[in-house]
Amino acid sequence: MVTQAGQVELGSLFNQNFMNKTAKIIIGAIIVVILSAGFFAFMIGRKPVAIVDQAGNSGGFPDMGSISSRISSSSSSERSFSSRDEDTSKKILTQLTDNAISGATYYGTTTVLYMERSTGNIYKINLDGTEKTRLSNTTIPKIFETLWSYKSDKIMARYFEDADQDDIKLKIKTFTASISQMFKATSTSGVELKGVALSPTITEIAVSPSEDKIFYLNETESGLTEGVVADFNNKNQKKIFELPFGEFNATWSTKDSIALLTKPSFDTEGFLYFLNSKTGALIKVLGNVKGLTTIVSPEGDKIVFSGVGREGMESKIYNAKNNTFSDLGFLTLADKCAWGKKNKLPTGRMIYCAVPLGAIGSRQPDDWYKGKESFSDELWSKNLSTGENKIILDSFGADIISVSTNTDDGYLIFINKNDGILWSLKLH
Questions:
Q1: DSSP state of 300
Q2: Which of 110, 206, 272, 346 could, after both became Cys, cross-link 286 (CB 3.0–4.6 A)?
């Protein structure tokens, strides 16, 4: 029998056990809350890492038509977690210009050439911002684009000419010029820039990465668009194709291959073609991607591209050799990326991209092109050999375009789209 006292003792023991269990539960709950709060705070403080669409799902382009089925099933496993490059002691960010520029290029491994947008004057400056020299003194206002030969001794410049009173649109003028004599000039005030005028009906221009040649699209009197390859002074012209459609962006990506991309728009399916500069053969590489923008590797075997998926913008890498797709690992517009020049171990091929903070809307790249939207970018790198993604530069408010590296990937230069200012970043 259980006595009354035993009943009391049993009741006390039950109450004690209950209180002990309750205390353990409360303490455990407090620990969970503390850990959850710490984890939440940690996650809030982190920068965006992986490519994620607005629905919170990673993956392929639902609207890519026939190519969507070829997205590699291993693409998710190839992605790696990102890290921040903490070795900032050797990294130096330098503002190279005070005024907006129309284009820049490397001259050797430690020097940059650029053309000032407002004056058309050409300058030379070291990548660390020292020894700035004016090479030309010919004023050419309203320069909006400057392209350089592969040896950086010739230029292709495009500028606006005021339209006639009855003409609504501004006229675009194009000229080429040799600047090799400027490097030998002793005058500190610069020398006169003399060039050769090209046809005003030219709509798009690209420069060969390995020869003194240019490619351009020209509107004929019959309304067709012809593709022409010529010397830098526009001699030895060779028409390699003629099409009823000419709305392309052109980039001379490899020695014999020109990339033709249909003008990107978020509500229009885009296509990328490779044009053989010698035979005129046209091959479709990518297609049925709305808002398609691309950048082709120096070997022509891989393509960074972005476009509008079902839930928003997505960024991918297309491997043309094995016909597979993988995630870039961060979300950006391909216009903001560049391929590294080095392709040797231990680093291997690198990709450098400006990555906007915050969301990228589904009306891109249209709103960005038109200036309706601006971004604040970080700079990221991706090592294709290891799959590692790194943040190499925190955002300082710049909307970064025209990213490029020198021959040893030791420096990176870019332009702030907001003000046209040129910057350099010492990588290592």
A1: S
A2: 272
Mean pLDDT of 140-164: 91
Total tally of structural domains belonging to the chain: 1
Residue 356: domain span: 54-84+298-428
The rounded Cα 119 to chain-centroid distance in angstroms is: 27
pLDDT tens per residue across span 59-88:
334 333 333 333 332 333 233 345 666 665
Give the Cα separation of 288 and 307 in Å (integer): 10
114: closest CA among 426, 323, 422, 419? 422
Distance CA 313, CA 360 (A): 7
Torsions phi, psi for 236 (to 5 deg): 55, 45
Instruction: Give the whole-angstrom CA distance, residue 141 versus residue 160.
Output: 8
Q: Which amino acid is at 179?
A: I
Do the domain assignments include residue 103?
Answer: no
The pLDDT, as a whole number, for residue 189 is 72
Q: Tell me how crowded residue 360 is: count the other CB atoms within 10 A of its CB.
A: 23
pLDDT band of residue 397 (cuts 50, 70, 90) is very high
CA distance 226 to 218: 5
Residue at 367 is within a domain = yes
- Give all strands of the β-sheet with 238-243 in edge-to-edge order: 202-207, 213-219, 225-231, 238-243
Q: How many H helices and E strands in the chain?
A: 3, 29
Q: Sorting pLDDT into bands at 50, 70 and 90, what band is 41?
A: very low
Strands 225-231, 238-243: parallel, antiparallel or unpaired by DSSP? antiparallel
**412 domain-assigned:** yes
Q: Measure the CA–CA gap between 348 and 291, rounded to whole angstroms.
A: 30
Q: Give Cα 147 to chain centroid, integer Å.
A: 17
